[in-house]
Amino acid sequence: MDAATFFAPRRTVRTPSGEISYVERGNGPVALFVHGVLLNGYLWRHQLDALSDVRRCIAVDLLAHGHTDAVDGQDVSVTANAHMLAQFLDALGIDRVDLVGNDSGGGICQIFAALYPQRLRSLTLTNCDAHDNWPPEAFAPFVAMVAAGGLPGTIAAMVGDKSVYRDALAPAYERPQDVRDETIDAYLQPFATSKRRLAQLERFVNAFDCRHTLEIEDGLRRLQAPTLIVWGTDDVYFPLEWSNWLRKTIPGTTRRVEFEGARIFFPEERAADFNRELHAHFEATADAAPRARDNAKA
Questions:
Q1: Per residue in 94-109, is it b (16+ CB within 10 Å) or e — as a string?
Q2: Cα–Cα distance between 130 and 127 in angstroms, integer?
Q3: Would you tell me how many other CB atoms lie within 10 Å of the CB of residue 267?
Q4: pLDDT per residue over 208-238, tens digit each?
Q5: What is the sign, positive or negative, of the torsion defined by CA atoms of 173, 100, 18, 42?
Q6: Residues 34, 115: Cα–Cα separation, whole Å
Q7: Where are the alpha helices (DSSP H) in the chain?
Q8: φ, ψ of residue 208 in degrees (nearest 5)
Q9: Which has the closest alpha carbon to 212: 224, 201, 204, 202?
Q10: pLDDT tens across 178-201, in order?
Q11: CA 298 – CA 95 distance, rounded (Å)
């Protein structure tokens, strides 16, 4: 699915945190997909396309990302984003969700799950920040670059020469050379065309701190929602040990899956394999009688 097709039905909804942008497809119980840093809901295009027969799939743009417009002065940290997700669901009249997260979005999902466990039907975590691995050591140079004021130049360079993006994010892809120019533009143009959103992204990255996940660890240890953990094994940012840590920490974990040789962005690169796991997880955790509000439309 190309970016124009994906974003054609894009909507926004007003929340206390701002105008939140999202794309949805399908009907039924809601599955909410949460992306990570630098990206937006386009990460989940293959999931929305493949799983809309069993779920009302919603890909949200986080605060400081994509087409979401945070209110002036809004906290855009990962914990603030977790609270935004609850506000977003309230605004759409959605009670509970199957929550799916990747990268820093997976960390945000953990925070949401610990703070709002009653709003989960199920949880799926892919390669992501956890516990005290936030930010990961391998990501520290990027964080330092942002702190030093280098983000505007870096985004401009990536947009102007897509090979810069492919080189910089090579550890996140199995096949960075195959990432299309259109995909890079879908992720980066919202920053390149808005100084306001670029400044928000700086604040998002500058707020990275493992305290956000350490503070909610007790909540994770009480979490009973059926949890699927799917992990790419070739990841310099989030090594396989973190999938085992999450499995041991979350008592609701029902299955842990390894994708041999996969990296962070396998929802794009291993979409068919991942979609099979998600489909089985959704089917296994489906309510016998889904709540009416789960199916409510905005």
A1: bbbbbbbbbbbbbbbb
A2: 9
A3: 25
A4: 999 999 999 999 999 999 999 999 999 999 9
A5: positive
A6: 16
A7: 3-7, 45-51, 78-92, 104-115, 140-147, 151-160, 162-168, 181-192, 195-206, 211-214, 217-221, 241-249, 266-269, 271-284
A8: -60, 125
A9: 204
A10: 999 999 999 999 999 999 999 999
A11: 12
Q: Let me know if domain 3-133+210-287 sits in CATH 3.40.50.1820.
A: yes
pTM above 0.90, yes or no: yes
What does the alpha-carbon distance between residue 125 and residue 142 come to, in Å, rounded to a whole number? 23
What SS3 state is found at 20? strand
Q: How far apart are CA 191 and CA 171, in angstroms?
A: 22
Bridge partners of 124, per DSSP, are: 100, 228
The distance in angstroms from the start CA to the end CA of the chain is 24
Residue keyed to tokens 């609701």: 252
What tokens were used for 295?
């199916």
Q: Is the peptide bond before 135 cis (omega within 30 degrees of 0)?
A: yes
Q: Where are the domains of the chain?
A: 3-133+210-287
Structure tokens at 115: 């703070």
**Alpha helices, DSSP H only, in 55-139?**
78-92, 104-115
Q: What angle do CA 13, 15, 17 make, to 5 degrees?
A: 125
The HSE-up count of residue 166 (CA atoms within 13 Å, CB side) is 14
Reported residue count of the chain is 298
> How far apart (Å, rounded) are the C-alpha atoms in residues 282 and 121?
9
